[in-house]
């Protein structure tokens, strides 16, 4: 084989109070078509891909080489044709998807035979937290913890019986900038309330109690009260979505995108109503990805 496709789902993280620990793989994808050749080449197709990068500075290339070096192997050069449904710096896991894609590329070209656990550990260590990374590796819902040695423990729920709508504004918000508005410390009583809400969110998701899930998505105390000031139409979207039948709405990752969880039965009328009220946003109906990152080999036709 000399031609493959790597497909990695984007993700949403936090889902309100699940700060840096809860992730959900979405049916929006980063796709790499990989063909062996004599030198490295990256070809970007369509929108949502970087425009100002070289091979040596390309995130996927640098991650692949970093992983190869970690395992003392060399990678065969290849042509990588890259397409993406994940807008950059919008809170839909574009960087985590690229990291997972780089790991898959190294695994493929270097013959590393990485386990799922290896991929979870490496991607989360590079990303710095396990929420988006585990969701891109596994798909579905992930609730994760990473210890001081970078070992990830993940509870994985493959199926989520609800639909999701993302409200994507026409501006970027770097995670580093959005982290800059967060307080350094919380007092004990505040932290107890915040962690209780996170516990209830996780329990509601596991129980598939989406009414409760929506409620606790809107009860975050860790980050949304501080980041909301950076997000135009934050309160208006949350209110309008609830009136239109959403279980709940929260920032997707660090923002600026918001995400609503809704009953599948109302998805078309919900989308119509939101498009009418927020025409300045790109509003996308999606669902939980059920597979996670995958690699498919293609026969070469002669």
Class inferred from helices and paired strands? alpha+beta
- Number-wise, the strands total 11
Order of helices and strands: EEEHEHHHEEEHHHHHEEHEE
Strand content: 25-35%
Distance N to C terminus: 13 Å
Radius of gyration: 19 Å
Domain GHMP kinase C-terminal: 202-279
Domain GHMP kinase N-terminal: 59-140
Organism: Solibacillus palustris
InterPro entries: GHMP_kinase_C_dom, GHMP_kinase_C_sf, GHMP_kinase_N_dom, GHMP_knse_ATP-bd_CS, Homoserine_kinase, Ribosomal_Su5_D2-typ_SF, Ribsml_uS5_D2-typ_fold_subgr
Provide a concise account of the structure shown.
With 302 residues, the chain is an alpha+beta fold. Helix content is 35%, strand content 26%.
């Amino acid at each position: 084989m000399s031609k493959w496709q790597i497909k990695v789902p984007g993700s949403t993280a936090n889902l309100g109070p699940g700060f840096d620990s809860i992730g959900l793989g979405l049916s929006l994808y980063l796709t790499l078509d990989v063909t062996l050749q004599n030198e490295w080449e990256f070809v970007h197709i369509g929108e949502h891909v970087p425009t100002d990068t070289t091979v040596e500075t390309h995130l996927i290339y640098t991650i692949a080489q970093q992983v190869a070096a970690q395992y003392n192997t060399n990678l065969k050069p290849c042509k990588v044709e890259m397409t993406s449904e994940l807008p950059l710096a919008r809170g839909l896991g574009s960087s985590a998807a690229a990291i997972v894609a780089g790991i898959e590329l190294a695994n493929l070209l270097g013959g590393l035979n990485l386990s799922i656990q290896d991929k979870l550990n490496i991607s989360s260590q590079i990303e710095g937290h396990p929420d988006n990374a585990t969701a891109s590796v596994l798909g579905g819902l992930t609730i994760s913890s990473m210890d001081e040695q970078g070992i990830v423990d993940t509870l994985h729920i493959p199926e989520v019986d609800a639909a999701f709508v993302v409200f994507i504004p026409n501006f970027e918000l770097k995670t580093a900038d959005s982290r800059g508005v967060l307080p350094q410390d919380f007092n004990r009583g505040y932290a107890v309330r915040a962690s209780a809400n996170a516990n209830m969110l996780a329990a509601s998701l596991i129980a598939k109690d989406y009414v409760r899930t929506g409620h606790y998505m809107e009860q975050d105390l860790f980050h949304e009260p501080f980041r909301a000031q950076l997000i135009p139409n934050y309160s208006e979207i949350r209110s309008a979505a609830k009136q239109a039948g959403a279980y709940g709405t929260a920032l997707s990752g660090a923002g600026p995108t918001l995400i609503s969880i809704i009953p599948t039965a109302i998805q078309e009328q919900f989308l119509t109503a939101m498009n009418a009220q927020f025409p300045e946003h790109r509003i996308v109906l999606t669902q939980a990805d059920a597979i996670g990152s995958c690699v498919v080999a293609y026969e070469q036709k002669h």
